[in-house]
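> call design_seq(struct)
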């Protein structure tokens, strides 16, 4: 077989693999405290199923790269050029087989794969309880929220629709953040403040893994615990230590956990 033929066979073999499996390194399982979502100047709206429980709710499970894809892209493009020649490597790059330029996470990977109610029919009750919408957009219909999360993040997860949601729910149930923080004496209050380090330490000690936390601001400008980013393996089954740190947006070590 001629070298050029071998190169193109290799090229399209790689493209075929790329089209069936999205490349990423880990998931962020993101959960938010509803009191912090609602206790802002913007406020919130309850879903059509009523006020959610005073419990951390899932925001999403997001595939992420351990390093920004922009840096990896050029390394892989150089490798393709060395193996296949510059002309073939250019085709390889244009086809997107080395990732999306400038993105540190994959998103919107399959526009034709819309979430169907039938696929998650047995999960709806649990999703209503554990993955509710608090946004005032969408008229309180949680299915629209789930559909958006699937479209943007789930289609990049290499999971079927049911597995994507079921695994997120299982992880939340296995590591209940509300109970973990309560066990460390961190409970919702309109007056108490807590140290950011005590929140991080409580989660790490209870789960065995580090997580990232994010604050937002209440209507008076006080920092409050908003979201917890737990890191999960590529199968969406096990927690791992977060390979990336992120800005907390807390502005200090003292934060609130408002009553919901």
């Amino acid at each position: 077989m001629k070298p050029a033929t071998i190169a193109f066979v290799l090229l399209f073999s790689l493209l075929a693999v790329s089209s069936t499996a999205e490349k990423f390194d880990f998931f962020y399982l993101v959960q938010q405290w509803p009191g912090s979502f609602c206790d802002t100047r913007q406020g919130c709206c309850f879903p059509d199923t009523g006020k959610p429980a005073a419990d951390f709710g899932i925001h999403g499970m997001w595939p992420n790269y351990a390093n920004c894809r922009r840096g990896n892209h050029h390394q892989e493009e150089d490798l393709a050029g060395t193996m296949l020649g510059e002309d073939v490597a250019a085709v390889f790059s244009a086809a997107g087989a080395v990732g999306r330029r400038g993105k540190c996470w994959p998103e919107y990977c399959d526009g034709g794969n819309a979430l169907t109610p039938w696929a998650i029919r047995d999960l709806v009750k649990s999703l209503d309880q554990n993955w509710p919408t608090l946004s005032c957009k969408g008229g309180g219909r949680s299915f629209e929220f789930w559909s958006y999360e699937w479209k943007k993040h789930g289609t990049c997860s290499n999971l079927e629709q049911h597995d994507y949601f079921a695994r997120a729910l299982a992880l939340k149930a296995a590591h209940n953040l509300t109970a973990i923080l309560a066990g460390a004496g961190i409970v919702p209050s309109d007056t108490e403040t807590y140290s950011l380090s005590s929140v991080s330490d409580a989660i790490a000690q209870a789960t065995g893994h580090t997580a990232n936390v994010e604050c937002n601001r209440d209507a008076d400008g006080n920092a409050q615990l908003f979201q917890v980013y737990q890191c999960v393996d590529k199968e969406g089954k096990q927690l791992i230590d977060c390979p990336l740190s992120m800005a907390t947006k807390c502005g200090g070590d003292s934060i609130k956990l408002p009553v919901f």
